[in-house]
Amino acid sequence: MKVFNTNKEYCQGVLHTLYKKLTRSIKVFLMLFLFIGFAVQYSFAQVPSCNGMMASKPVACPNDHIVMTATQALGSNGVTLTWTITNNSSGAFFTNGSKANLGTTVTSIATDGANTQLVNVGPNGTGFTVTDQPSGLNALPCQASVNVDKITVTANAPPIKCNGGTSTVTALANSTFNPGEVFTYTLYNSNNTTTGIISGQSSGIFTGVSAGSYYVIAGGADAGCSAQSNAVTVTQPTLLTATS
Predict the structure, then answer these.
(1) What pLDDT does 16 receive?
(2) Cα dihedral 219/221/223/226 (nearest 10)
(3) Which candidate in 31, 48, 82, 229 could, as Cys together with 155 as Cys, close a disulfide (CB 3.0–4.6 Å)?
(4) 34 pLDDT tier (thresholds 50, 70, 90)
(5) How far apart are CA 53 and CA 71, in angstroms?
(6) What pTM was computed for the model?
(7) What count of Cα atoms within 13 Å lies in the side-chain half-sphere of residue 54?
(8) 130 within 8 A of 83, measured Cβ to Cβ
(9) What is the dihedral of CA 186, 187, 190, 192, to 10 degrees?
């Protein structure tokens, strides 16, 4: 047992012991703090999450092929991505360069950054949602929705009253995406050529139409989608001839 000669030596010894203990505690605390910091940083950097998704066409036409791009976070390289299509009123499905129907669920192996899937929009409206779910603990998914601008067109025309006269073809287009969408109408004859009648291009009401078979194509302003109407036959009465 060490014997101190003076109170001063005793105090110095106590202070020295406390200093060593305090220094050791600070070192342990710093090491623990650095370890926790690196662990948290590593865990966040390595979560194979999806940072966002976008569609090459947020508003598409029926049967369009669009590309869905999901951006994977760092640490996603090599994990499995499960892609699904939900809320699918349009009949969309995943496809490939051969235009095969791959269904509404596919998987792929991720790379850090952009990952893509090709989607056939389907024939109907009004849209669908694509979700990308990376595998792994705490991995966050991402998704994007696509609207489908499905257009329908109806057309009709009353018969001509007198032989050699004309009638009026009236066409009306509707959109599943935007009820107020603006359309451009074009009147075609049975030979699939335009009639040259421009009276109804903005209204869908074509005047001065002679007897024959016709149809109307309406093009929407929102996404550039178009649709063809039913066939319209403009009839006229038989030419009357005088008899003696």
Answers:
(1) 62
(2) -10
(3) 229
(4) low
(5) 6
(6) 0.73
(7) 5
(8) yes
(9) -20
Q: 150 exposed, middle or buried (CB, 10 Å; 0-12, 13-18, 19+)? A: buried
Tell me the pLDDT tens digit for each residue of 166-211: 999 999 999 999 999 999 999 999 889 988 888 889 999 999 999 9
Structural tokens at position 149: 């601008």
The answer to whether the CB of 103 falls within 8 A of the CB of 85 is no
At 74, list the tokens: 């760092």
The type of residue at 12 is Q
Identify the pLDDT of residue 74.
85
**How far, CA to CA in Å, does 112 sit from each of 13, 71, 231?**
59, 8, 52
CA atoms within 13 A on the CB side of 17: 6
Quote the longest CA-to-CA distance of the chain: 159
Is the Cβ–Cβ distance between 70 and 81 less than 8 Å?
yes
Say if residues 102 and 95 touch (Cβ distance below 8 Å). Answer: yes
Our separate counts of H helices and E strands in the chain read: 1, 16
Q: What tokens appear for 121 in the block?
A: 């929009």
As a three-state string, the secondary structure of 47-86 is: CCCEEEEEECCCEECCCCEEEEEEEECCCCCCCEEEEEEE
For residues 217 and 214, what is the distance between their CA atoms, to the nearest angstrom? 10
Give residue for tokens 């009253």: 161
Beta-ladder partners of 187: 216
